[in-house]
Each structure stands twice: as structure tokens, then as C-alpha cells.
Design a protein that fits this description.
Elements lengths: L13 E3 L6 E3 L24 H21 L3 E5 L2 E5 L1 H10 L3 H30 L6 H14 L5 H16 L3 E4 L1 H19 L7 H5 L17
Antiparallel strand pairs: 1-2, 3-4, 3-5
């Protein structure tokens, strides 16, 4: 005798609104045009085209990651000449000047965090497409971490903005953001949108759709006649 499959919101015909979080019942006849009873937003059991949209955003962020790290991030011009600095050259300068804690922070936030986010999103996409059932809780936690740290990857942009305002205020030199700043900002924004477009419920769908193993019947106990 097989055990009953676990009851999920999808099996019960329920969906959560992506805008206000209201839990509502999907109509049995026209579920594709259902609306949230509270805010009126379209209701979907899963985010529409979640995998395709996330793949497009991740691939775009990969293409922009290289120019973000190879092109100049900051261009400084003074009476001594002009200098172009990339993210890595800035990290090296901070390290050699003795500001190694700031160099570690800039390297981790500007180089490692975007790269790790891209790798994590690739892992989640591949595992979901392969309908993997391994470690769903750990993969869900990984997604929550990626979603949370997205906003903290703009450290270089913040530093350049403050430096430009400071230098212009003192009239020492001219500091401009290089082409890498645009590419880097695009990488951060694209990875943030990729995390938002990914539906973590897809991680658990293979477990809910799996047929539970049947329980073998217990052997009959013969009656004893005293």
C-alpha cells in the first residue's frame, strides 16, 4: 500500500501573490487569468518563465563581468598627469600602501561577491533543470544568501562617488568613473534581477512530484489455537 503524497499549496490549488504575499485559491476553470483578491496583481503558481529569464540575466552578467574587471574603473587627472585604475590595481595599491583591511574588503565585495553570486545562480539553475532532489534545504538557503548579499556588491561605485565629491570639493584633481563602472554596475543589477526572477519553489517540485515508495504489506500472523 503506497503512502499518500504530501499536501502542498500547488496540489491544494493555492498560490501566493508575488506583489503583496496574499495566499489565494486559484480558480479551477481559468487559472491562467487569476487575480489577487487584495491587490489585483496576476496570480501564478510559479513565476512565469523563471528559468529562461534567470538564464538570460546570468549570461548577460557573465559577459559584462570581464570588462568590469579589466577596463579602468577610475580615471584621475591632475597637474602631474592622468592615471587609470582597474579594480585589481586599486586593490594592489591599497595593499602596498598599508591599507590591507580596506584592500581585502574591496577585493571581496567587488571581485569575489559578484563571481560567487554568478556561480551560485548557475548551480541553482542547472540543478533545477536537472530536477535534482539532492539537498533542497541547502540550495534554498544558498538562494536566500544570494538574494540578501546582492545590494552589498556596489562598494566600488560608492567609493568612486565619495572620492569624486571629495576631490572636486578640494579642487585637487579631476576624478571620473571609467567604463568599468558602467559594466560593474550592470553586473550587480543583472545578478540582483536574476535572483529575483528565480523561483526557489522549483527546487522542491521534484520532491513533491516524486512517487513515494510503496510500503510492503506486513506478513500475516497465523492464528494460534490453544
Amino acid at each position: 500500500m503506497s503512502a499518500a503524497p504530501p499536501l502542498t499549496a500547488l496540489r491544494a490549488g493555492l498560490a501566493s501573490c508575488h506583489v503583496c504575499g496574499q495566499l489565494a485559491r486559484l480558480p479551477a476553470t481559468d487559472a491562467h487569468h487569476a487575480r489577487c483578491p487584495r491587490c489585483g496583481a496576476p496570480l501564478h503558481a510559479r513565476k512565469p518563465a523563471s528559468i529562461a529569464t534567470t538564464w538570460a540575466l546570468v549570461l548577460a552578467s557573465i559577459l559584462l563581468y570581464l570588462p568590469a574587471n579589466l577596463l579602468p574603473m577610475m580615471i584621475t587627472a591632475s597637474f602631474l598627469g592622468s592615471q587609470e585604475d582597474t579594480i585589481l590595481s586599486g586593490v594592489i595599491f591599497l595593499w602596498e600602501s598599508g591599507s590591507w583591511p580596506l584592500a581585502v574588503v574591496v577585493f571581496f565585495a567587488s571581485v569575489m561577491v559578484p563571481l560567487l553570486k554568478i556561480l551560485a545562480l548557475l548551480y541553482l539553475l542547472i540543478s533545477v533543470q536537472r530536477r535534482s532532489r539532492r539537498h533542497p534545504l541547502q540550495r534554498t538557503r544558498l538562494y536566500r544568501v544570494v538574494e540578501f548579499v546582492g545590494r552589498w556588491s556596489m562598494l566600488d561605485i560608492y567609493v568612486i562617488t565619495l572620492l569624486v565629491a571629495l576631490v572636486h570639493f578640494q579642487g585637487l584633481a579631476t576624478v571620473q568613473a571609467g567604463p568599468a563602472a558602467v559594466a560593474f554596475g550592470a553586473v550587480v543589477v543583472l545578478t540582483m534581477f536574476a535572483a529575483l526572477s528565480f523561483d526557489p519553489r522549483l527546487i522542491w517540485d521534484p520532491l513533491a512530484d516524486a512517487t513515494p515508495p510503496s510500503t510492503p504489506p506486513s506478513p500475516a500472523v497465523p492464528d494460534r489455537h490453544d
